[in-house]
């Protein structure tokens, strides 16, 4: 019986590999290489969970953050499409950016005895109890997109997603270079992502780490815009009221930058000219704004994590060792790059 189960998982893994190989030509589209993962460190755990019987579909419970941005929409689609292509049963929930909703969804997946739970944690802290419950139920957990700050890394099998600190560094490096010959003070306002989330914490930290070596670059205001367009616009309006001399906007995602662009235009200023704009993500709407010169620099964050997640699910259920951290490869785009790449952009 056990060998029949194992054979089923091996066959499913082989099919996944085949599917991933066939699909891999279709997701590139940009000079950044939209996909691909670089294994970093070793998983360090080989405890095999109960494999799904050969005749039973693998069930994956996925607790999504919400639908706050274009990035998230693309991420959700990637997960749903890839689960379908892999032949998994996907149980999907939208937490509307609330941690308590994600915890509830994870507990439901535990009760339903899904084979694997995956989620993108809305904030970094406060996961240990529910992750321990999943571990006690022998259900492996995979983190995608965002990290948790749990000390006990045995609570999850792997974390697949971007290096957000590096994204912040890339934004900072471009700015340092742009103003390297300027003696004048450059006033920066920052629109942070959701408070307490990994991308907000890390993009801020990486940016600060790089710009601190340039004393003329000054962050004069920094506030959360919760990764949404509406909040990005609202906070930018407040920034413009409070500060007459804003030179640069650093937005932690495209949606907030797009909301801020509306506020800047309504204030009679030219985005990308009167105020230099840097954002993160690289969704289609961000690319359109960049190709029009309204966003000057985009740091890419890849939402197409579905294939890698399904592969990891198969590997975990097959009892394979998988890397504890899988980092997605990403690029950067100036307005000129965005103009060139816009027709290829898939999301
Ligand atoms: O966690 C990834 C971030 O979440 C994206 O940069 C942002 O757009 C999204 O809401």
Descriptive report:
Pfam families: Peripla_BP_4. This is ABC transporter substrate-binding protein. Residues 29-50 are annotated as: Disordered. The structure is a single chain. It contains 11 helices and 13 strands. It has helices at 2-23, 70-86, 99-111, 128-136, 164-178, 198-211, 229-242, 254-266, 284-291, 306-317, 335-341; strands at 37-39, 59-64, 89-94, 116-119, 141-144, 158-161, 186-192, 217-224, 248-251, 276-281, 297-300, 325-328, 332-334. Strands 1-12-6-5-4-2-3 form a 7-stranded mixed sheet, sandwiched between helices. The chain has a 6-stranded mixed sheet with strand order 8-7-9-10-11-13, sandwiched between helices. Helix 2 (70-86) links the parallel strand 2 and strand 3. It is elongated, with a radius of gyration of 21 Å. It starts with a helix and ends in a 6-residue tail after the last helix. The structure holds alpha-L-arabinofuranose. Residues 68-69, 71-72, 145-146, 199, 227, 253, 255, 280-281, 301 line the site of alpha-L-arabinofuranose (AHR). Residues 68-69, 71-72, 145-146, 199, 227, 253, 255, 280-281, 301 line the site of alpha-L-arabinofuranose.
| Architecture per CATH nomenclature, i.e. the level-2 architecture of the largest domain | 3-Layer(aba) Sandwich
- Biggest sheet strand order reads 1-12-6-5-4-2-3
Distance between termini? 44 Å
Radius of gyration: 21 Å
Q: What's the CATH H-level homologous superfamily of the largest domain?
A: Response regulator
What compounds sit in this structure? alpha-L-arabinofuranose
Molecular shape: elongated
Q: Sheet bearing the most strands, described?
A: 7 strands, mixed
The SS-based structural class is alpha/beta
InterPro entries: Peripla_BP_I (IPR028082), SBP_2_dom (IPR025997)
Family: Belongs to the bacterial solute-binding protein 2 family.
Keywords: Signal
Region (Disordered): 29-50
């Amino acid at each position: 019986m056990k060998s029949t189960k194992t054979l089923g998982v091996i066959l499913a893994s082989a099919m996944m590999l085949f599917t991933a190989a066939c699909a891999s030509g279709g997701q590139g589209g940009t000079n950044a290489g939209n996909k691909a993962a670089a294994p970093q460190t070793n998983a360090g755990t080989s405890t095999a969970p109960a494999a799904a019987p050969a005749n039973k579909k693998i069930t994956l419970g996925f607790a999504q953050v919400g639908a706050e941005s274009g990035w998230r929409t693309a991420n959700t689609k990637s997960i749903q499409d890839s689960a379908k292509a892999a032949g998994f049963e996907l149980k999907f929930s939208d937490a509307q950016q609330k941690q308590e909703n994600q915890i509830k969804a994870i507990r439901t997946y535990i009760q339903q005895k899904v084979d694997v739970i995956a989620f993108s944690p809305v904030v970094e802290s406060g996961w240990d109890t529910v992750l321990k419950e999943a571990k006690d139920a022998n259900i492996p957990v995979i983190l995608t997109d965002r990290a948790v700050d749990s000390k006990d890394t045995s609570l999850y099998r792997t974390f697949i997603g971007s290096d957000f600190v590096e994204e912040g560094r890339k934004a900072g490096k471009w700015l340092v270079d742009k103003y390297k010959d300027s003696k004048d003070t450059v006033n920066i306002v920052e629109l942070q992502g959701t408070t307490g989330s990994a991308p907000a914490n890390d993009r801020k930290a990486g940016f600060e780490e790089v710009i601190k070596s340039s004393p003329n670059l000054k962050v004069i205001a920094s506030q959360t815009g919760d990764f949404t367009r509406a909040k990005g616009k609202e906070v930018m309006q407040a920034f413009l009221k409070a500060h007459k001399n804003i030179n640069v906007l650093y937005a932690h995602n495209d949606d907030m930058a797009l909301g801020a662009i509306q506020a800047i235009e309504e204030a009679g200023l030219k985005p990308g000219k009167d105020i230099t704009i840097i954002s993160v993500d690289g969704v289609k709407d961000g690319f359109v704004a960049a190709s029009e010169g309204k966003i000057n620099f985009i740091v890419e964050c890849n939402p197409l994590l579905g294939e890698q997640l399904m592969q990891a699910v198969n590997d975990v259920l097959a009892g394979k060792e998988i890397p504890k951290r899988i980092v997605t490869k990403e690029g950067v785009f100036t307005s000129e790059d965005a103009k060139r790449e816009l027709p290829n952009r898939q999301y």
